[in-house]
Each structure stands twice: as C-alpha cells, then as structure tokens.
Amino acid sequence: MADKVLIVRIGEIHLKGLNRGFFINKLTGSIRRVLKGTAAFARFDNGYIYVRDYEDEALIIGKVTRVFGVQSVSPALEVGKDYDSVLSAALMLLQGKSGTFKVDTKRSDKSYPLTSMEMSPKLGEDILKANANLTVDLHNPGTTIYVKIREKAYVFTETIKGQGGMPLGTNGRACLLLSGGIDSPVAGYQIARRGVSLCAVYFDGFPYTSEKARQKVIDLAKRVEIYTGHVKLYFVPFVKIQQEIRKRCPESYTTVIMRRYMMRIAERIALQENALALITGESIGQVASQTLQALAATNSVVSMPVFRPLIGMDKIDIIDIARAIDTYDISALPYEDCCSIFTPKHPTTHPKLETCEEAEAKMDVAGLVDDAVNSAVVQRAAD
Ligand code: ATP
Ligand code: MG
C-alpha cells in the first residue's frame, strides 16, 4: 500500500542548536494553521515535517509552500522499505511517462540490506523491464526518481521551492509603515519572512485622499497576511500635521519633515505594540526623500532600528517580488496617497538636519505627535 504524503524540508532551522525544538514547533504550528479547514495533518518526524491525509495535492502544496520556514516540498509515495514496495511506487510515479530517467537513492537507515549504490541500478533495471517507453540517462534525465530510505521508504520525482526564511513568531515583532505603494508591502513581506510578526501604520490623508485609497491599504494588508499571518493595521489621521507643515516649513522641506513625523508616530505605535523595530519600503535614490541625506534626516528622529529591506534594490526587482506575492495589482491601482497631497514643486534632495530642526521648532511637535497617536484607529483587529 502506498500512501500519499507531502515531505516538507525545514531548511535553515536544521542549523539551530539547542532551541531547534522551538523553531520546529513554530513551523509545524504555522503549517497546521494554513491546513485548517482541510483534512490534512502535519507532523514532525526525524528531520522533516510530513503532511498526510489530503485529497487535493495542488491545494495543499499551494498552502504549505506559502509558509515561512518551508524550504521545499515533495509530494511522495510512502511505502514499506522492502524492495518490491519501492519498485512498485516508482512504477506508479512513472506510469504513462516516456523519455529518459534515472534513480537517485539515499538511505539514512544504514541497516538496510542494499546500499544506495546497489539500489539505484537495480531499480533502474527493473523499471526498464516494466516500461518500454523509458530509457536511462544518468547525466541529463527527463525524470529523476528519488528514493529515500528512512523509517519507511519515500519515492518522489518533484521538489517545489517554498518561501524559505524562518517560521513566524520566532523573531519578535516590527511595525511596518504601509502606504498604498508597491514597495512597503514587499518590505513587510521580506522582514516577516525572517520570522517577524507585523503590525502596520497607514498615514491617512482623508478627506484629501479617497475612501478608495483607504480600502486599497486594507486590501494590501490582507494580501500580505496570506504570508505573514494577521497584521494589526492602524490608520493615523495625518492631514492636520500636513497642514501645519505647509504653514510653517520651507516648501522644499515639507516632504522630509512629513517623513520625520511619520517615523516619530510609527515609533510610538510600535512601542504600544511591543514592536522592536520599524520597517519602510525605502530604497536609495528612488525619490527625493530617499537620498542618503534625506534618509539620514528621516532616521534621526527615532531611536528604534529601522529596517529597510529594499534599500539596495532596483524598482524593477521590487516589482518582481510584488508580482510573486500578488500585491502588485492592488498597489498599481491609481488612488492617491497622503504623500501626493501638498507636494512641493521642488523637494530638496540634500536636506540639512539643522534646517529641519529650525522649521520644527516653530511647531508643537510633541503635541502633534501625541494627538496623532491618540487618534489612531485600529482598522483591522484580529479576524
Ligand atoms: P511605497 O514605498 O509603498 O511604494 P512610495 O514609493 O510612495 O510608497 P515614499 O512615499 O517615498 O514611497 O515612502 C517611503 C516609505 O515610507 C514607504 O515605503 C512606506 O514605508 C512609508 N510611507 C509612505 N507613505 C506612507 C503612508 N501614507 N502611510 C504609511 N507609510 C507610508
Ligand atoms: Mg517607494
């Protein structure tokens, strides 16, 4: 009897020392969470997680390969270790196939009567006898039959890449500055992929920006959540601060000063959320507010680490990731963001810290930040 099983490889977690068990439990938990509502069940056993009892293989593979910490998966047949069972599983997988193949055997059970070197050619020979449409090609085979001899034998032909990274909830929490753009959802995804849970802040330009712009951010958060788990999303009313900035600051400095406010407010919300870092979608030189001088001026108002995973990336590569994680279509919708209201004609690309500070001295920064934090609204609490 051959049972269908999905072998899940745990990648980097293998390298963990004493707390390996903690990581494995988190990963198994993440997989079980995405399998909820299906009959499938995941269990760790001796270096791998095995998912069993499923009908719709493609559905299960789709779900499991989205889990952070999953290196790759292989849909396999699980059979007894006796030679005949392994052979019949291999023949089952090759049914209807033609072209070239090879067999690749590995045994972690060293007490097994045949060595890997003996097993592969023997299987190859018997497969050839049973299936006249196949020939052997050891160097460039059309199909490779992998045979793993462990507590049981596992036979498969396919390995599908997962997300890699670390299981969610193994590396603390960070607060994402989530705009409606292309970059920030990708930045959130990249950091969450290292096991960090997310909360998010959106600076809301309503009523200068539309209800649709708000909905866009909510929809983006939902898309990111397919990977990151629940993202608690705050909306911060931002127009009052923008108006104050426009009234009191040199026009060319309005963007960089606005960004300094965003960082201050996000840091306060992060603290409330027990988050230890901020995340932005900034990338060097992408726009005037992302020159090194502007980034330095923006960074200097917070003491928390700011993660900018896209900092050295080109837009075109960021877009590739946005497409792969399926946020691009939403990000590309044309609704404006608060950054697009009150934009200066000529934003400075070389802001000076002293000029920012002089301008801010004319404002009640602490009061404005307090007000903004106090009027932040949680858009999406837990589902
Ligand atoms: P995105 O980076 O998401 O495409 P963008 O390209 O318009 O937005 P900027 O406006 O320069 O970039 O903003 C840089 C970063 O600041 C964004 O990646 C995001 O992290 C944060 N940010 C900008 N606007 C907002 C906003 N309205 N709400 C929350 N965060 C924002
Ligand atoms: Mg950007």
Order of helices and strands: EHEEHEHEHEEEEEHEHEHHEHEHHHHE
* Overall pLDDT metric: 94
Task: List all distinct small molecules, including ions and cofactors, that are bound in this structure.
Answer: adenosine-5'-triphosphate, magnesium ion
CA distance, first residue to last residue:
42 Å
Count all strands and give the number: 15
CATH class of the largest domain: Alpha Beta
Question: How many structural units, i.e. domains?
Answer: 2
Low-confidence stretches: none
- Tell me which CATH architecture of the largest domain applies here: 3-Layer(aba) Sandwich
Give the helix/strand class: alpha/beta
Secondary-structure map:
Elements: E1 3-9, H1 20-35, E2 41-45, E3 48-52, H2 57-64, E4 72-79, H3 83-94, E5 99-107, H4 116-130, E6 134-136, E7 143-149, E8 153-156, E9 160-161, E10 173-177, H5 183-192, E11 197-204, H6 211-228, E12 232-237, H7 239-248, H8 254-272, E13 277-279, H9 292-299, E14 306-307, H10 315-324, H11 328-331, H12 353-361, H13 365-374, E15 377-380
Parallel strand pairs: 5-6, 5-7, 10-11, 10-13, 11-12, 13-14
Antiparallel strand pairs: 1-3, 1-4, 2-3, 4-8, 4-9, 7-8, 12-15
Bound molecules: adenosine-5'-triphosphate and magnesium ion.
Summary of the model, kept short:
The protein is of the alpha/beta class and 383 residues long. It is built from 13 helices and 15 strands.
